[in-house]
Amino acid sequence: MNASARHGAGSGLRRLADDVYATLPAWVTARLVVAASMLSARLVADGLMDDVDRPMQVGRGLMAWDGDWYRALVDFGYDGVRLEGVR
Length: 87
Prior knowledge:
Layout: H1 3-48, H2 56-60, H3 64-76
């Protein structure tokens, strides 16, 4: 292996490390914001709402909102979703 080939492999790893270093803080921050939002929603719902008034999605986690949407599509088709959901 010649020097230029070795330099190319090292430079590729360096670029990858630079990319990870540049994106990792934003990725971690986004996850922390989502976790804080979920915790806030749960605390507000538990503290301020009765069980009857609390949206069921609050207790079902992050995927509940889209999951309920797709479940309604499977169960009822587009007739089972609100009009603003039909495109």
